[in-house]
Amino acid sequence: MKLAKRVAALTPSSTLAITAKAKELKAAGHDVIGLGAGEPDFNTPQHIMEAAVKAMYDGHTKYTPSGGLATLKQEIIKKFQQDQQLDYKPSEIIVCVGAKHALYTLFQVILDEGDEVIIPTPYWVSYPEQVKLAGGVPVYVEGLEENEFKITPEQLKQAITNRTKAVIINSPSNPTGVIYTKEELQALGEVCVAHDILIVSDEIYEKLVYGGHEHVSIAQLSPELKKQTIIINGVSKSHSMTGWRIGYAAGDADIIRAMTDLASHSTSNPTSIAQYAAIAAYSGPQEPVEHMRQAFEQRLNIIYDRLVQIPGFSCVKPQGAFYLFPNAKEAATMTGYENVDAFVEALLDEAKVALVPGSGFGAPNNVRLSYATSLDLLEKAIQRIEWFISEKV
Ligand code: PLP
């Protein structure tokens, strides 16, 4: 059957593609080290799982309001007050099936055919596809490596046209791990307010920040910026709950109402028991979040120092999330590959290390490594990459 035009141009997630190939090799008996993971390698904390089990036995196994349980919205509101000193009303919050679905629903309700969304590169793989699925046009602005992959207000200004509807800011960033400072956000925010551009602030890695760096939400910086911003967040990365699929959006009540109407005809609601689990995640002890953060920070510091010793690799030091995004162009050239994609493919075939090529993130000279795996495996992976390079030069 002929598929809809809408999906003809859809590219499958490159992150999932490499993970699938690594799994295939593993199933065939190869000792593959996968560094493609986009999720914490910790179990969901015990008290959260217990809350979900209790919810089930208490009979909370029915439909919930489409925008999420009132109690969960209250917990999210409290979280915004505590962490960002931001006040939202329940009508300004929607709980979705993960942050990914919150973004998808948002683009569906704000974009008309041909509306442009500014996406800084390197970007998270789903942004362009989601924009296109909503009839929008992604407009890329290059975050230069020498500027820690961040875009400047001048670059933003230059990308704006009379079709620009929104800009996405993802800080801490997947794949680079860099964090915009308060001053940088202020300067970008001024451009958005002046041109009345909606800011989509994806703060899913908010809790994973290192080296004394601070996460600031652009919505915190002024009442005008709060009005101009939709915050996207969730419990997937902070509480190691990727499979539970709970994320949310906060901002303008009209946008949230439209998103809720759309959800009422698509998902009906996020899974009831997962919502109870998310209530426990926010209302319960936060120590597990900090323990996971510390474990990631320790790995980052050890692995970053090792990574930059690999011949032909250079890397901007990440400040958050759980990815390293080294430039491997020189390594690819040294070893005789025409580009980094080919280098990554050979690395998987010959050294059995799965990295994600940066081309899927709009940065073809880079590769993404996730350190959401044990230090032992990380060290082993680096040794294999070093071996692979030394064999070829
Ligand atoms: N935004 C970014 C930048 C991500 O990296 C991810 C997950 O990989 C998401 C959003 C989606 O998270 P969720 O599991 O809540 O859908």
Folded structure, characterized:
The chain has 393 residues and is an alpha/beta fold. It folds into two domains: 5-43 and 287-392, Aspartate Aminotransferase, domain 1, CATH 3.90.1150; 62-283, Aspartate Aminotransferase, domain 2 (3-Layer(aba) Sandwich). It contains 15 helices and twelve strands. The protein has helices spanning 5-8, 14-27, 46-57, 70-84, 98-110, 126-133, 153-159, 182-194, 223-228, 253-266, 272-283, 287-307, 329-334, 340-351, 375-392; strands at residues 33-34, 93-96, 116-121, 137-142, 164-170, 198-202, 229-234, 247-250, 323-324, 353-354, 356-357, 367-370. The strands form three sheets. A seven-stranded mixed sheet has the order 2-8-7-6-5-3-4, sandwiched between helices. A three-stranded antiparallel sheet has the order 9-12-11. β6, α9 and β7 form a beta-alpha-beta unit. α3 crosses α11 (272-283), α5 packs across α10 (253-266) and α12 packs parallel to α15. It is globular, with a radius of gyration of 21 Å. Residues 38, 98-100, 124, 170, 174, 202, 204, 234, 236, 242, 247 line the site of pyridoxal-5'-phosphate (PLP). Pyridoxal-5'-phosphate binds next to α5.
